[in-house]
Design a protein that fits this description.
With 334 residues, the protein is α/β, with parallel strands linked by helices. It is 46% helix and 17% strand. The longest helix is centred in the N-terminal third of the chain and has 31 residues.
Amino acid sequence: MKRWTMRRREFITLLGGAAAAWPLAARGQQIERMRRIGMLMSGAIDDSQSPLRIEAFLGGLRRLGWTEGRNLRIDVRWAAGDSQRIRNYAAELIALAPDVVLATGGSTVGPLQQATRTVPIVFVLVPDPVGAGFVESLAHPGRNATGFTNFEYGISAKWLELLKQIAPDVTRVAVLRDQSTPDGIGQFAAMQGVAPAFGAELSPVDVRFPGELDRALGAFAGGSNSGVVVTSSALAILHREVITASAARHKLPAVYPFSLFVTGGGLICYGPNMFEQYRQAASYVDRILKGEKPGDLPVQAPTKYEMVLNLKTAKALGLQVPDVVRLRADEVIE
């Protein structure tokens, strides 16, 4: 009898200990269970900047406790600026039932929302999410998407102003844009509104066909007092080496939307740091994975724009950079 009592007590003690451990184990499993993130990238996988974008995002997630292979699975699709590929990949990613999708650029968000109205979407580098219909308002997105804008269309006027400051004699401006997207149309329209005040005549040039870019810019440079503004688009980034090389070949001063154009030989840029947007996106993905809704997270605009100036390129173009431009630059490449 005594022997059975001891065994019974041992069993009750063991059972009680296991019961106490179960909630802890369950909590551990909940924290460590695998979550799935889709990434629809508008750029190309072989672009030298692509690994840096991915690392900016994943680095931000790691700082918040998410690690690929431990509690996170990442599915990445690269569209290389192809609209049909974007639509196909959007449907493909949603079919994988991700917990959240990161979308790069305005061209990716629409197809994703056509594929789902429930899977949360966090976007980066989108100029006008309200006008595009992705969110109801910046403060209260209200739908399944939120994220980070890179600028308003009005910044295009700033690019034109900057071109006139660094090359005052320019009166003819080739505007490189992706005319198949709302972004390309909106940025060009913003410049058209202020062009008369700067004494500038604008000529749109489509960036969709890189083989035609050099011929188009060569023909444009045949006139006098010519310059270039490159608007923001996935295709412009994809073809940036062709664009900067062509501008240099035809002696055309050019203003760009991101610093990677200037570090690659372009003249000057004014725009947000794109890698910072990916790091910020990680914080929204983290909050959504922890239960918050994208419709409750306000869309955020950049808090800082950077100007990068390449003096070597300016010298090759025969430009005397005004002190007001040089002093305002956040970085000067000698």
